[in-house]
Model the fold of this input.
Amino acid sequence: MKTLRAVIDWLEERTGVESALKHFLYEDVPASAGWHQVLGSVALFGFLTQVFTGILLAGNYAPTPGDAYNSLRYIVTELTGGQLIRGLHHWGASLMIVVVGFHMIQVFLWGAYKKPREATWIVGATLLMLTLGFGLTGYLLPWDNRAYWGTVVTTQIASLPPGAGPYVLRLLGSDGGSIGAITFARFYAAHVLILPPLTALLIALHVYLVRRHGVTPIPGDEARPKKKFYPEQVFKDTFATFAWFAVLMGMAIAVRVPLGHVADPTDTSYIPRPEWYFLFLFQMLKAFQGPLEIVGAVIIPTLAIIALFLTPFIDRGKVIRVRQRTGAISLVVLACLGWIALTARAVATTPPSTESPDAGLALVEPWQEIPADQLAAIGAFRKDNCGNCHVLGKSGAGPDLARAVSQKPSDWLMAHFKQPAPNVATQLKNPELRGLVAFVTKRNDEGVKAWSSASQAAVEGAMVYQANQCGACHKLNGAGMQTGPVLNGVADHRTREWLEGHFADPGRFSPGSTMPPYKLNSHDLDRLTSYLMAIPK
Amino acid sequence: METLTRRTFYSAVIAGLGGIMTAALAAPAAAYLFIRPKSQKQSDFVPAADLSQLTVGKPEEVVFRRTRTDGWRVVNEKSTAWVLRKDEQTAVAYTPQCTHLGCAYHWDEKENNFLCPCHTSTFSIDGKVLTGPAPRPLDRYVTRIEQGKILIGTEIQKS
Done:
């Protein structure tokens, strides 16, 4: 204890840190100060948490299109705590909007923006804009379909102001309206290099101004003795921050942050939608079409922002009690109702996404990535007990086929597969024999992994696929013709019932289809459908 | 004992809640930074050379390709090893870095030893330090001999 005192005294003498801290903590606050004024502190700690989790994410993140997605996927699937830290950053951003929203409503209702606190309000309103900027720029960084298509819409809106539009687009690195490496770099730079220091600076200024003018008193405070900031108000601030933190941690643990498929600019089925706090704008835009679009996209938001900044100059009356501020209360209630109505309408009218929000989190197994003929060949290998002599991974009665591709000529292999040993004959049919020859002479490392790990159900599905020559019209995992649609990712837009019905009667499900009906028994139908539904995009 | 005043109660709660929040952020951060990725690939043996092509008692720099997981990327890259065939059946593969500061060393034919040009460490053909600042003998890859080929693993043995 004595040493600690000595260290503090040494520091105090050289830097004055102790008296500065005391000055900060023993600030006078009005007698009316209390729970309604905790939100500013919560927002400050929210910002610090975002900085902390953001730096952690940046430590395992590659800020370029494509790699961004892969590295984020690595963070959430490979790293311990990665999912939690991304969750904290993602939900922390959403909660930040909630906290600063309520903070602003409180300041507005209490009239705390009035003379001499106009500058504090303007700095606060600027901080709100920066917070929204964080949301917009951070939205692109996962580089999945949601990020990509959401940002396409954002940049298109930004291009609307007449005259300035093309220059805004160029500034966003989206010349000609496409989103690519430059856009990505601009958004990333804004998100981690421009916005954080700017926000930190303005927060410092905001806190300084709050301190300079003191916490806003209410009428009647002047007659009552002042309180000290520490410990009562600090306790309330800490308690509120803890409640906020508990909610954040709960969300980060319980609610999985979506990660879809990697951004695909050619995907025509994806329906973009913004983050929840921008949905009201998204909905409002629908009411303004054609030449009026600019009204909803640019003019109304700009006017609203100007009104927000000018609030202290529009309302110049004296500070009065909250309950008497009926005009302000009605305005807040109306704004909230409008916001809720627009958001609810947006949620109700947007069709459900065709892509599972967790599409990018599912682990892809090797058998899901190899062509069907190879997987079917694995089935032939297993069906006729080739594994009795050929043990994968070690030499048994036969050589280890996993070590290297077979160098034997194909006619030798054909004969060997028909009759592997004297007096032993297999039941394999000719197409199966040919598939097996192709597999043992051409397979790659993925094929070997699938060989030992593919489930029997999947292998049987691939065998049904091959037996019915689906590849004569369809492409799957890079193999087959393209007369019919590519079958990769079919589960993203078709249900199991649809597929099963479609096999029996294609014309009924897709009019004009040239696909012949396939009468499969229930076992084969089940295997084939499960197999196709498991092959990712 | 100190009586519990309103003031000491406030101070204790502030410190306690602050401590909980700090710990709740620090613990996952430490796990995230220090625990290895979940599915790091297990050691893979890749064929590097045919034993018959190596001369007994003469180290050769052997180049081979290996697929390696590098964070979120899987890279197929060139690797090298100094392989010494000891007799008909055995061989050792030294990792190509000097054990001092990681410079690339080479076999000095005239002196009959390995020489690191950075700080002139020399190693005998068995990898033992002869001169210079190197703190330990040359490191070795774990190897296997199969069907006349030397297979090099990812694990490294230090002595």
